[in-house]
Amino acid sequence: MSAPSETIQPTPSSRIAVPPVTPNEPPHVLIGGAGLAGLFLGILLERAGIPYEIFERSAEPRSPNILPAFEQLGLLDELLSFSKPSFGVAMLTDKLKLIGKPLASNTDIIGYDRVLFSRPDLHNMLFKKIPKEKIHMSKKIVTLDQDQDGVTVTFDDNTTARGDILVGADGAHSAVRQHLYKTLEMDGLLPKSDTEDTSKGYISLLGTTSSLDPSNNKKMLDEIRHFKTPYGTMGDLFDVTDIEKVSKVYFEDKLFETWTHGRTVLIGDGAGAVNAMQDAVLLANYLYDITPTNFKNIKTALSDYKNERFEAIKDQYPQSHISAKLIFGHTLWERIIRYIVFNWLPASLQRKQMVKDTAYRPQANFLPKAPKRGTMDTIPQNHSKRIQREKGEQETKERAAVLAI
């Protein structure tokens, strides 16, 4: 895998005063994007005592592998209050003929119920947890400059913000990514794979209906309104769905190589809400480890974050690709495979895959761990270097105190 150089050319700017170096203070983090990843990162940094600001281009808030982290933050009960348990999935044809039923989740093994919730409801919950003074709306990033002393972002209203680290948390098409990649490409530092267009194999509209009422049925309005479901037509569901609770999700068939350069790091690249929030958890752990705050330690922390997270994503990517083909594919071969998997694959193999898919559950190193739930083992994560060092220093002091008696 190719990797960009870590050399940063100083960017002179007479209009921006460089803040004094304060190595004993935690880094000041600028977060571009108030989506799920940006908000969740903000909540984690709040608990870690790391200063941050979130900048969102919109004028108003937009619309079970992460559940242990929610439990750590004391947010699990609130999340479950507007969630619905998922007891299983059935795949049907347009004639409501059963294609197959994937194996239902086993709470005794996994430890958590699989739940469904409206994405905007989750967004609103997280948004309310961020102190008002730390989130700035109508702030579209148009340029970024980073040097040995800090990173500066300029917004479309000609205002600027300066910090130690910039987190691009607004997806694969973010302004942060576009500007960073453009700069790296001009300098010949961007891997060729990252210059290629992103293909979108599938697009989904996700929504949460209100209570279903047959009297609300409306006339078919478009080509898919007549599709049948166990609850009426798709049109019936559309008519009882609040448009504000509908999200367009792109299933992007690409794994970017470049996640970080200098003081800038990218998270939540359109890989789904759970993956985006897992990015936030791992990144918060490495930001917590930065001490003292200097350019070398910042680069090391961001690089270590990428290395640990990339391995997990690299393992998940092929499986996600296969799952997308299996669930959404329309070719004859894809239909045959889907029928075989959902009807002939032994339950033991499906259960083994379910355990593998839910074993990666990163938690915040700087918070008490959520209790172990379920009988399955989870994938271990890297320990906090800062906590280990501080623990060692405390033990040394205690031994010295005993010897001095």
TrEMBL record:
User: Which Pfam families did the record assign?
Assistant: FAD_binding_3 (PF01494)
Sequence ranges of Basic and acidic residues compositional bias:
387-398
Q: Specify residue ranges for compositional bias: Polar residues.
A: 1-14
GO MF terms, alphabetically ordered: FAD binding; monooxygenase activity
Segments for region (Disordered): 1-21, 366-398
Keywords assigned by UniProt?
A: FAD, Flavoprotein, Oxidoreductase
FAD-binding domain segment(s): 29-181
Similarity remark? Belongs to the paxM FAD-dependent monooxygenase family.
Protein name per UniProt: FAD-binding domain-containing protein
